[in-house]
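Feature request disguised as a bug report, sorry. It would help if multi-protein outputs had a clear separator. Right now it looks like this:
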Amino acid sequence: MTLGKNLTHSFAQIACRAADNIGDQAVAGTPVDIERLVSNFTMDCIARLVFSMDVGTIENPNNEFAKMGNGFIQMWRLKNNGLLPN
């Protein structure tokens, strides 16, 4: 399999896990936090691409990788909104 096909397959697997997560929450009647889901999807894709790791932030949004990634995103937002000094 070529690199492009491997990445496409990997991203498709992660997308299926995200869809399953949405379905599970719908069946349970709980609201879906789309912003968090997209953030976790992105982190899972980056971890797979850069580190060749399956970190599973979609299934476990409170794992260490997700906490560090979300902390980075919060800092980035504060900086972009001018709430942190350059």
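(second protein starts here, but nothing in the output says so)
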Amino acid sequence: MNDASIGAKASEAAGAIGAKASEAAGAVSARAAGAADAVTSKASGSAGSVQATTDERPELLVGGAFAGGLLLALLLKRLGS
């Protein structure tokens, strides 16, 4: 074997590796896009159920705001001392 044939084989092997890597990256990208679509559809369904619940029981929003304010006050008190 001479240097030219070794270089040609190395170049061919590198091209094959690059093609396989590109194919694998495409498969991973497609799988990630499918998972993202599934998460988006589940999240939009959850948002609709939260909206329906708070429309029926607006006191939950007031209670949540109170609890959040209380936790914030306790956190700030602890940070201040």
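Even a blank line would do. Unrelated, but nice: The two ends are 78 Å apart (CA to CA).
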